[in-house]
Amino acid sequence: MALNEIKTITMKMTSNTQGDGLFLNRLLSYLKSQFPFKINKIGQIRKNVFIITSDSDHFILKGFPSYHRLKLQETYTASLKKEGFQYTYLFYEFAKNPPLYFEQNYYGCLEYIPPSQKTFSYDNFPDRCDGLKLLEQYHTTTKLITNRYRSNLGHFKLLEKWRERSARFLNNVSIIKFFVQKEMIDELMTWADWALKGLEKEKVTLDNVPPVILHGDVAHHNFMRSEDGQLYLIDFDLISIGHERADYLQYANRILPFLDWSIEKLAQHEKLKPYLNDKIFLYSLAFPTDIFREWNRLIRNRQFMNSNKVRNVLDLTVGQFKERQNFYHELKSLVND
Questions:
Q1: Name one Pfam family in it (predicted).
Q2: How far is residue 159's CA from residue 199's CA, in Å, rounded to a whole number?
Q3: pLDDT for 241-296, tens place per residue?
Q4: In this predicted structure, what is the pLDDT of residue 217?
Q5: Is the entire prediction scored with pTM above 0.85?
């Protein structure tokens, strides 16, 4: 695909107007008709997530694509609280006639947790350690309720997910090659191939493990520090059943850019250190899942003519390439030892 073709496709894109003032006004009007108290203000946090101000309090309004997804989240967070995991939010039942339904989304009302002025950051060693401790507490709790949710949650399938992600990346190379050297793309595919073949060899071990309910999205913005300093875990949209290793793997992938892709620095985190003797974990760390994910998303959303978006993905791909190359060779040595 030539660059002028890419530009033509991009120019045909239509803007997303969901977060505009007209939508917020319509939503505010709807909410005023649904609640038994006065709603004063609505502000958008991100897509389908809003902060609502009433005469007496604040709460979070979150949209879900189906009633089932809404009820699952309500039930799940209540289960966590009941079993002793207090560091998340509760759902409220405020509406006169639930459920709230507006423009193809069902809405739930979530507890507002006043945030600290100091945000949680993976660039901060104490924050990284606190996040791992909270994740461990979360897994300890979910072991108690996994059987309860077996019929409602899918099983996390790492190999299938990454095979698909790798295939999509390969299919998108015709566009990616305009931004990244062929030799670098070939190297990324080498890492992915080694990781997938290694995971295939360990597949019996991968599948035969005691499950927990995985959070599934341990990005830094899903850890929130409250104004009293307590850390909370939020947003359970991607929960599934699987081995807790999957959450710690994702956590490691999220923090490694802040550790210069150093195994030595990764080992300083006590919760992750034992996993560096786990072949499944080592093979998985080699798979460039973040690079594949971001390129696939960029191309799926046809944002490859957006210089800011492309710059961010290039920084991820090219800016850290040497460090990741060395990291890959270290992983191979650890697996072979």
A1: APH
A2: 7
A3: 999 999 999 999 999 999 999 999 999 999 999 999 999 999 999 999 999 999 99
A4: 97
A5: yes
Say whether pLDDT at 122 is over 50.
yes
What is the distance, to the nearest Å, from the Cα of residue 267 to the centroid of all Cα atoms in its chain?
23
Contact between 91 and 194 under an 8 Å Cβ cutoff? The reply is: no
Mean pLDDT of 307-321: 95
Q: Which residues contact 128 (CB under 8 A, 6 or more apart)?
A: 122, 255, 258, 269
Residues 277, 334: Cα–Cα separation, whole Å: 8
pLDDT on residue 21: 85
> Residue 176: enclosing H or E segment and its boundaries?
helix 173-176
Computed over every residue of the chain, the mean pLDDT equals 92
The helix (run of H) or strand (run of E) holding residue 320 is none
Give the pLDDT of residue 62. Answer: 98
Q: Assign residue 237 a region (left: φ > 0; alpha: ψ between -120 and 50; beta: otherwise).
A: alpha
* Fold of domain 21-111: Phosphorylase Kinase; domain 1 (3.30.200)
Taking a C-beta distance cutoff of 8 angstroms, is the pair 39, 53 a contact? Answer: yes
Q: Is the peptide bond before 99 cis (omega within 30 degrees of 0)?
A: yes
Query: CB of 51 within 8 A of CB of 58?
Result: yes
- Shortest CA distance to 196 belongs to which of 230, 152, 162? 162
